[in-house]
């Protein structure tokens, strides 16, 4: 068991590094136009159909799990997936720039599933909250790395919309893996996790108040890709958007014509509320003290 957990830890780390570093290469591969016997095409054209097929497979899988579950589990499943689907619908309707962003759902659901295999292989340790927090944090690291470095050439702002999408994907992965939110044998409670989350929010707030991180670049400053402006080696400011018109505004997009760009304040608030709701709806203790996992 210990060797298996260590193996899954290594696989999770490798998977995260590869998907983070490979983001730009995958995006270019997906959107590049190619010439086929039937004319020009790009793989991005297949994304809506692949997403539909994935949704159908998920529904079939959930129906099979539902039929095999106890009444308590069935109620929990209905509440979680109904809430999750409503959140996904809202994100798709107002916050999605392009259908290519659907790739975040399998990417981070799989990351959370792998973390669950490493941290809580039998689903009995009550680690759902920790996995949700940790995998979402890794998704945040991924998005920050894209803005600062990996996709800096075409990133005009730090994308809090994607932060929220990653959170929803992680919650789905934890639920699918069947990790308990609370267990009678749990040695770790999640109260510490909320302190960690509060500490991260506090650090971000302090960074904003010191002036080293700012959301509103002055009109007389040309912010370069990556958002870092240095007047002197010891006087650098990181701007989370390259010009002031992005956060809290409608921006044009190919998916529905326009999409709303979340500001850091509202993006963080939505993540906290959504995370708090979903973590309370994740798999809990069954009447017989055991949880069936798919």
Could you walk me through the main structural features you see in this protein, from its secondary elements to its overall organization?
This protein has 294 residues and is mostly helical. It has helices at 2-21, 23-31, 47-67, 71-94, 104-119, 128-150, 160-177, 191-210, 264-281, and strands at residues 34-36, 39-41, 213-214, 228-232, 235-239, 249-253, 257-261. The model is unreliable at 183-188 and 285-294 (pLDDT under 50). 57% of the residues lie in helices and 10% in strands. The radius of gyration is 20 Å and the shape is globular. The longest helix is centred in the N-terminal third of the chain and has 24 residues, at 71-94.
Q: Tell me the fraction of residues in β-strands, as a range.
A: 5-15%
Fraction of residues in helices?
Answer: 55-70%
What profile does the largest beta sheet have? 3 strands, mixed
Subunit arrangement of the protein: single chain
Overall strand count:
7
Strand order of the largest sheet: 3-5-4
Mean pLDDT: 87
Ends distance: 19 Å
H-E string = HHEEHHHHHHEEEEEH
Unreliable parts: 183-188, 285-294
Cα-atom radius of gyration: 20 Å
State the helix count: 9
| Protein structure class | mainly alpha
* Morphology call: globular
